[in-house]
Structures are given as structure tokens and as C-alpha cells.
């Protein structure tokens, strides 16, 4: 995501924004608006929005887990088992982790985490096939678009084939929207964008749909919840991408709002409500996929940090639940002991960040209690 890595991108953005501007195709054949509505109605008839979590059924809570702490900290795995319905690999299903060489896959770390989930009766989900980051050098050395497309499709087929029935949902594409569409056009620069253009998105969704007809196919992105032009544009681009996929007859089931929440920004609750309603009318649902709190600009100590977190997480839930119950709420880690946030956005006062539902001693925060009540 975000601020920390966006500056460089702006400098070397090479995609042609016009190729993907709203109203233009993202690559696949365009059908008519009527066919879109028919497709949406058909999807809705088969899988009514929220059917898995109809009123009364709890929304599953999950966390993203990292293999490197499993053996060194026994309390770590226990925390996931104590608190999570969904336990998903944070990094181990990324392209460079799974596919270190053209002819070699390394499934062992991901297998261990997925097994931890499924042998304990928990669900798991996949993150992620298409991302601008975590790409191996051998892949980025490919300069022939046909070859790159073949590799992408084969990668998706191989991975989804292996985990069919064990990963019931996939972030097919992650962070494909421009960080700041008011400056950069529509789509974010990436290897996939440079080699295939915007059509890498429909190519990936079509491959995923063929490879595992039963997995939920998700478009995952960040900065979809705050108030302001940049965020309005990002939400609008997501909706346009969904429409274009559906116009082309390609399945997409939901949108993941990552939910890396800057505690000093404001959530646009009405805009989120409209966003969720618009997706619902297209037959899609929402999930919160990488929730944590970025408290680097919050003054004071743990009490102030937790009070700010309670407000920002509460507002996110308010906005998301306005259009119905989400598919899941997943936090990006479980304990403040291990998080990317102090590495990338440390507090100026040098005090510990408090991004996750459990503190560094595995004690639940007030906002976690609130989330559990809301999901129940
Ligand atoms: O939290 C993840 C960190 O451990 C990895 O080193 C990093 C690079 O693979 O990715 C982090 O997770 C990111 C996620 O995959 C996509 N959204 C933003 C997350 C935080 O940077």
C-alpha cells in the first residue's frame, strides 16, 4: 500500500491512463450495459448478497499469519486459534514466495499455514496473484507480452489447483489502482501493467474463475475508506473496473477494503455506504481484508492510541455495515508484537505502535471487543 512506497511510483509511471479511463475498456471485449445488468442479476440469483452471513449469522473474523514466528513464539499460533475463524498466510502465497524460479514452486511455507488453519477447522484465503511487489527477478526479465501472460495464467492455474477446496477466497489482484488517480491516471504502475497493460486484470480474473469455480474472487485495495477527492476517485475506479469485468462476462465476487487505517484521517461513512450499495447492486460483497491502525500521528500514550483506534475502526465498520454484513473482517496480524507498521511508519516519539487487536502481551484492545460485538 500506501504513502511510504508511492513517491517512487509516480516518477516512473508508464501506463497509458487513457487505456483504462472510466468508460474505456480495461482490456477484454465490451458488452452492453444490459448484459451487465443481466449478469449481475444472474449472479445475485445464485449467490444473494450476504447469503453466507444472513442476519443472525456471525461475520467471520480472521487474521493474517506469518510463518517466521510460529516456532519461536508458541503464544502466536495459539492467539490465532483462540480468536480467528479465518487464518490466512500474510506473505507465503505471494508470487515470489511461491514461484522462486520459472520451473520451481515452493509450497511448503504456505502449506504449513493453510494446514494450521484447516486441520483446526478454520478457513483460509489466498493473498495474492497479481501485485506490483513481491515479483521474482526471473519474471521481470520476461519482455515478451505473450510469454508474460502465459506465465501469469499458468501460475494462477497451478496455485489455485493446488489449494482448491482449502482456500475459499482469493485476492486475485492487489493494489492495481493508482495511488493518486488525480495525478497518475487510473492504474498503478507495475511490471504487469508495463508488459500487459490494463488487460492483466481481466486475464487474471478469467484464469482464476476457470481454475477454481468455487473460490470467491476478490479485488483488493487500500485507501478506499477515507474522505477526500483522491479516495472518491479510487472508489469510482473500483466500481468502473467491476463493471468492465462484468461487461466482459468475467466473474468477480467481491472487493477487499484493506483497512490500513490512518488514525488521524476521517472515514467517509456515507461514501462507503454508497460504495457498498453500488457493489451490492452489481452482485458483489465487501470484506475488510487487512485491518490495522496506523497511529504514528496520534499524540499521547496507549490510552490515546487505543481511543483513536476505537473511533477509526468503529467508523469503518459503520460505513461497511451500512450496505449489509461483510464477508469477513480480517486483521493484518494479530498482536502488536509483530506488525509491518512500526517498520514503515514508526511513531515520532519512538514509543511502540499499537496497530493490532491484541497488544504485545496478547491482551485484547477495546476496539477488538467492539469488533467482536459487531460481528456477532
Ligand atoms: O505485511 C507484509 C510484510 O510482512 C511484507 O514484508 C510485505 C511485502 O511482501 O507485505 C506486507 O503486506 C502488505 C500486503 O501484502 C498488501 N497490502 C499492504 C501490506 C502492508 O505493506
Could you describe the 3D structure shown?
With 376 residues, the protein is of the alpha/beta class. It has a single domain (36-375), classed as TIM Barrel. It is built from 16 helices and 9 strands. Strands 1, 2, 3, 4, 5, 6, 7, 8 and 9 form a 9-stranded parallel sheet that branches. Helix 14 (302-321) links the parallel strand 8 and strand 9 (329-331). Helix 12 (229-247) packs parallel to helix 13 (269-281) and helix 13 packs parallel to helix 14 (302-321). The two termini are 29 Å apart. Mean pLDDT is 89; it is low at 2-25 and 27-54. Ligand 9MR binds next to loops.
Topology of this structure?
Blueprint: H1 3-11, H2 17-20, H3 33-46, E1 61-65, H4 74-83, E2 86-89, H5 95-98, H6 108-119, E3 126-130, H7 137-140, H8 145-163, E4 169-174, H9 181-184, H10 191-196, H11 200-211, E5 216-221, H12 229-247, E6 254-257, E7 260-262, H13 269-281, E8 285-294, H14 302-321, E9 329-331, H15 341-344, H16 366-375
Parallel strand pairs: 1-2, 1-9, 3-4, 4-5, 5-6, 6-8, 7-8, 8-9
Ligand 9MR binds at residues 1, 90-91, 94, 133-134, 174, 258, 290, 332, 340.
Amino acid at each position: 500500500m500506501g504513502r511510504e512506497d508511492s513517491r517512487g511510483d509516480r516518477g516512473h509511471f508508464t501506463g497509458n491512463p487513457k487505456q483504462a479511463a472510466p468508460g474505456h475498456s480495461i482490456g477484454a471485449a465490451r458488452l452492453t450495459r444490459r448484459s451487465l445488468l443481466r449478469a449481475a442479476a444472474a449472479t445475485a440469483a445464485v449467490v444473494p448478497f450476504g447469503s453466507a452471513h444472513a442476519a443472525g449469522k456471525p461475520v467471520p473474523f480472521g487474521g493474517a499469519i506469518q510463518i517466521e514466528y510460529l516456532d519461536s513464539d508458541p503464544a502466536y499460533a495459539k492467539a490465532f486459534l483462540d480468536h480467528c475463524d479465518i487464518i490466512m498466510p500474510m506473505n507465503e502465497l505471494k508470487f515470489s514466495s511461491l514461484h522462486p524460479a520459472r520451473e520451481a514452486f515452493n509450497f511448503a511455507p504456505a502449506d504449513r499455514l493453510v494446514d494450521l488453519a484447516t486441520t483446526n477447522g478454520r478457513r483460509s484465503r489466498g493473498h495474492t496473484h497479481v501485485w506490483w511487489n513481491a515479483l521474482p527477478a526471473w519474471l521481470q526479465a520476461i519482455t515478451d507480452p505473450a510469454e508474460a501472460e502465459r506465465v501469469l495464467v499458468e501460475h494462477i492455474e497451478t496455485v489455485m489447483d493446488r489449494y482448491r477446496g482449502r482456500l475459499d477466497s482469493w485476492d486475485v489482484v492487489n493494489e492495481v489502482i493508482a495511488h493518486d488517480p488525480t495525478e497518475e491516471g487510473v492504474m498503478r504502475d507495475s511490471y504487469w501493467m508495463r508488459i500487459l497493460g490494463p488487460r492483466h486484470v481481466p486475464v487474471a480474473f478469467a484464469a482464476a474463475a476457470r481454475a477454481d469455480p468455487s473460490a470467491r474472487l476478490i479485488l483488493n485495495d487500500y485507501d478506499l475508506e477515507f474522505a477526500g477527492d483522491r479516495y472518491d476517485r479510487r472508489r469510482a475506479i473500483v466500481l468502473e473496473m467491476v463493471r468492465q469485468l462484468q461487461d466482459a462476462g468475467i466473474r468477480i465476487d467481491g472487493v477487499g477494503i484493506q483497512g490500513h487505517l490512518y488514525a488521524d484521517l476521517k472515514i467517509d461513512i456515507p461514501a462507503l455506504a454508497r460504495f457498498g450499495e453500488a457493489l451490492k447492486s452489481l452482485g458483489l460483497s465487501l470484506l475488510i481484508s487487512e485491518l490495522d491502525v496506523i497511529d504514528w500521528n496520534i499524540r499521547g500514550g496507549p490510552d490515546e492510541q487505543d481511543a483513536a483506534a476505537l473511533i477509526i475502526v468503529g467508523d469503518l465498520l459503520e460505513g461497511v455495515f451500512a450496505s449489509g454484513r461483510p464477508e469477513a473482517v480480517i486483521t493484518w496480524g494479530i498482536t502488536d508484537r509483530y506488525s509491518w507498521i512500526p517498520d514503515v511508519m514508526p511513531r515520532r516519539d519512538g514509543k511502540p505502535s499499537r496497530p493490532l487487536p491484541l497488544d504485545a502481551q496478547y491482551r485484547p484492545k477495546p476496539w477488538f471487543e467492539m469488533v467482536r460485538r459487531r460481528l456477532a
